[in-house]
């Protein structure tokens, strides 16, 4: 299991229970087991202001030495103030000892040993960098120090990575929330069980001081506790709800019977989220953690919930998701939503499902002659007019640039589909009024009905039909799967491809990838071609789809791996250590022989695993995430860098990124190609770069075709780029000529790869 997977499970587990000591132990164990540190200790703030180590995990000797150790609060305050002076790391102040210039007796806590094997500096103080420790203060939502998480790196002089910093920050943030909830819950339960009447005043003050809403409901479903924060967050006064049934203002029914059945079985309630509509009409998003309350006799009394208002965070998440799923100019969904919806309808269809792709002919000329502003207004007007004829189950999306697509979800039959396409043609042939300027456009429409194929195949046929429609007078072409590749042709092509493997007719072209800031070569992508004896050089689009639907994909993948590794061996012999990326298809990813094939190719040509990069698309992973992640994890454990290709084109990009043990992600060319002209594409690229860097991943931009795009990628902080502006896919001799002709960018001939 990858570190990210294990971390996510541990983070989710922190919210499953509310016992303070158990939560602290889980935090310490999670840092050691999930993040790879040697020792982790939680120093909890005590009532007298001092900090006591209350949970330790890691090396037994350290556990024995640190457990119960106390240190004055003043020492930690000085150290955290110094951390602030050095500069905060995002929301948390992390202090690594080796970031300080010198050892400062007034700053370091008394229990931290002074390094012994370090020569004093000119002023007599010793360098601090020998101590490999990190400190993360854990704060409550109202900025009170709850505890300090201190971690030590495992022995052996290992350097912490950017990923470890990022993961520690994520984990520390979750730990802060878990500790605050656990502390509140422990105090509440202690007061509740000690004596309700005697501690009523204290309990009320503690509850009212909580920034989270605290609500208790008894076994009869009646509200028995409603804190002041609950009044503020939920919009209802305690006088109106205490003693009455819980108001049903959530965005889904609250089944209290099921909740109490769960609690009676001794199960912890999982962390959950819900929407709540206040009496003033506002809706708040709540994070809910809950546990059972008991009578002094130990019987189940009710359920107590802590509800935190996470509306701002939820809005931010929705905004980011909308950036990835919608077009900013027209407000329409994008291709990722189309693929997701089409896939769903192909699975559940009970009627004819078809897709039409609409392209505006000569739109570039309109932009050049009228200006980009009017061009944008035209695209918005086209979107509105296309939307006028939509039915309830249809979906209109903007694919890219001047291309739109309509998913016809409830068409009666092929005749109905064709009639609707002609209706769309007539609608778009009506003159557009752009601020008093009449504009007429010609359009081409490609139509494809769903057959025995998946979403990508349907879209590919619709796109091919659209391009064919440009050469017809009608402007409309329908392509069936049989017209693209008749069964007899597929059988013939399959036989020829099998013979091509036997006769070494497959060749590999190489497209360079370079650093954005320096232009330094950091690797190449291997792209297969077929040198057909009769038809000449064939691109992969004309034959790969046949192989991917048969068992022939295994031998083809093995051959490409061999060609890539053989070329790396040749380059190494010539003194050039150039890494090569190879694409994996969805079918090969689920082939149980893939890992063996990769290992065999590496061994056969004596290539280090780190020089071969394997690229896999998000859609391939999401076809069967469990199987895919098992294979990818095994490859990553072998030291083979993994790249998430075509990032952003899958609907689940944000939610599944953490699951893939990748070192880099590649932004799909559809976003990069138009980013200079399309503000929403630029936003997507910037968001992707920031997201990847926060997780310690490098970013590769595909489809860089001009200098303006290159400069914008540089401003956004993108790491690596490839595209025709850098170099087209080339035969090995052409690539070597290209490499020799380039001006040197570093003192060494071939720079070290920046992404594995």
From TrEMBL:
PROSITE patterns linked: EAL, GGDEF, PAC, PAS
The protein in question is named: Phosphodiesterase
Q: Where's the PAS domain?
A: 199-243
CDD domains on file: EAL (cd01948), GGDEF (cd01949), PAS (cd00130)
Q: Which residues form a coiled coil?
A: none
Q: Which residues form the PAC domain?
A: 267-322
Tell me the superkingdom of the source: Bacteria
Which stretches make up the EAL domain?
490-743
Q: Which GO terms describe its biological process?
A: regulation of DNA-templated transcription
Q: Where is the GGDEF domain?
A: 351-482
What Pfam family is a match for this entry? PAS
